[in-house]
């Protein structure tokens, strides 16, 4: 049993160090091996995803990632050596991480942080975006740009849609039993195929209420009445956009974890890559104020999905709720005038809550 730990850039190393303390506390028997990724890997080796990093990931049961990228690396030429295109997307593709789970949860203690009126989020918000992660416009061929004409290609195949639809239906089954499939079937052929395949798969899940929604309407409904949603399943680019929107409704981007699950089964679950939804936050890197909770919560998802350790996962989640209830706030989740704590103090509190 082994986790590959890729701290990456910006605040990545600071938050990963704290997440590792949590893993050491709840799962000391799982080995952790670190490797370089992103800009730091580019600086050290000339490539943002060195071969040995990819190998380590392939030999592990799960990957814990901090964040990659930063202004220093935005101008690297060719662009395929920049952290996002040279590390993040290839990791997804090479590790077949086709199912991206992005829970957007509003913690009752943070209700003030939501960008929506209190009446719309009262009692909390809990929407799961299931984003297809290895198809669509991100990876379709051909791709080209000669300075006059640029091409991206959107491709989806039936098996690609079937497998992500199953993930969406199964997730809904464990939650509120409602699945909304977002597409653009009034315009796109890939969306028409998407819709018909999702409906075929739906026959295996008669207990789940399926609705189709055009993605533009879905974006609107998310701010109009977010509580109508339980699980949203959608293709790669739509999921990129909708998951940011859903995350912001909770006002706590610094709180949100994510899982990218692959098709490879491990002895105890499914191989996956886990990372906070926020990025490398170069503006606050090195200042000791980054919120470690999204990464700590990503460890909970890791233990649940890749190691079948639901108990340990729930312990972490309860500890995080407890420190929020105690009133601890890093600057990103503090209301105006509220006292704040740094990365380490927040993590100390989580560890204390874990052993309480
Ligand atoms: C995300 C990010 C990435 C994406 C970028 C950095 C390539 O926005 O994980 O949502 O578009 O998938
Ligand atoms: Mg995004």
Give the topology.
Blueprint: E1 2-8, H1 12-26, E2 31-34, H2 39-45, H3 51-59, E3 62-67, H4 83-94, E4 99-106, H5 118-121, E5 125-132, E6 144-145, E7 150-151, H6 158-173, E8 178-183, H7 189-202, E9 209-214, H8 215-224, E10 231-234, H9 236-249, E11 257-266, E12 269-276, H10 293-307, H11 310-325, H12 343-355
Parallel strand pairs: 1-2, 1-3, 3-12, 5-10, 8-9, 8-10
Antiparallel strand pairs: 4-5, 4-11, 6-7, 11-12
Helix pairs in contact: 1-10, 1-12, 6-7, 8-9, 10-11, 11-12
This protein binds 3-isopropylmalic acid and magnesium ion.
3-isopropylmalic acid (IPM) binds next to helix 4.
Structural commentary:
The chain is of the alpha/beta class and 356 residues long. The chain folds into two domains: 1-100 and 263-356, Isopropylmalate Dehydrogenase; 115-249, 3-Layer(aba) Sandwich (Isopropylmalate Dehydrogenase). Helix content is 41%, strand content 20%. It contains twelve helices and twelve strands. The chain has helices at residues 12-26, 39-45, 51-59, 83-94, 118-121, 158-173, 189-202, 215-224, 236-249, 293-307, 310-325, 343-355; strands spanning 2-8, 31-34, 62-67, 99-106, 125-132, 144-145, 150-151, 178-183, 209-214, 231-234, 257-266, 269-276. Strands 2-1-3-12-11-4-5-10-8-9 form a ten-stranded mixed sheet, sandwiched between helices. Strand 8, helix 7 (189-202) and strand 9 (209-214) form a beta-alpha-beta unit. Helix 1 (12-26) crosses helix 10, helix 1 (12-26) runs parallel beside helix 12 (343-355) and helix 11 (310-325) crosses helix 12. The longest helix has 16 residues, at 158-173. The two termini are 27 Å apart. It binds 3-isopropylmalic acid and magnesium ion. 3-isopropylmalic acid (IPM) is lined by residues 84, 88, 240.
């Amino acid at each position: 049993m082994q986790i590959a730990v890729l701290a990456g850039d910006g605040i990545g190393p600071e938050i990963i160090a704290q997440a590792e303390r949590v893993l050491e506390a709840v799962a000391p028997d799982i080995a952790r091996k670190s490797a370089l990724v992103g800009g730091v890997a580019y600086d050290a080796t000339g490539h943002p995803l060195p071969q040995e990093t990819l190998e380590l990931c392939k030999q592990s049961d799960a990957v814990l990632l901090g964040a990659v990228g930063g202004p220093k690396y935005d101008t690297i030429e060719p662009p395929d050596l920049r952290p996002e295109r040279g590390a993040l997307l290839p990791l997804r593709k090479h590790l077949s991480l086709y199912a991206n789970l992005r829970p957007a949860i509003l913690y009752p203690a943070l209700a003030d942080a939501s960008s929506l009126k209190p009446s719309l989020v009262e009692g909390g918000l809990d929407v799961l975006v299931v984003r297809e992660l290895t198809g669509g416009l991100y990876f379709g061929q051909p791709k080209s740009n000669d300075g006059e004409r640029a091409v991206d290609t959107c491709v989806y195949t039936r098996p690609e849609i079937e497998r992500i639809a199953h993930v969406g239906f199964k997730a809904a089954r464990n939650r509120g039993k409602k699945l909304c499939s977002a597409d653009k079937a009034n315009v796109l052929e890939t969306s028409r195929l998407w819709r018909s395949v999702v409906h075929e798969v739906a026959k295996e899940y008669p207990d789940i209420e399926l609705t189709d929604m055009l993605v533009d309407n879905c974006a609107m409904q998310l701010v109009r009445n977010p509580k109508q949603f339980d699980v949203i399943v959608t293709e790669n680019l739509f999921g990129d956009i909708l998951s940011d929107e859903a995350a912001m409704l909770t006002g706590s981007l610094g709180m949100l974890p994510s899982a990218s699950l692959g098709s490879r089964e491990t002895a105890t679950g499914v191989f996956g890559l886990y990372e906070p939804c926020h990025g490398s936050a170069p503006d606050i890197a090195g200042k000791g104020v980054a919120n470690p909770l999204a990464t700590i919560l990503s460890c909970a998802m890791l233990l649940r999905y890749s190691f079948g350790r639901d108990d340990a996962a729930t312990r972490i989640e309860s500890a995080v709720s407890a420190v929020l209830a105690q009133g601890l706030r890093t600057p990103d989740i503090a209301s105006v005038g509220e006292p704040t704590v740094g990365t380490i103090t927040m993590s100390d509190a989580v560890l204390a809550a874990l052993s309480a």
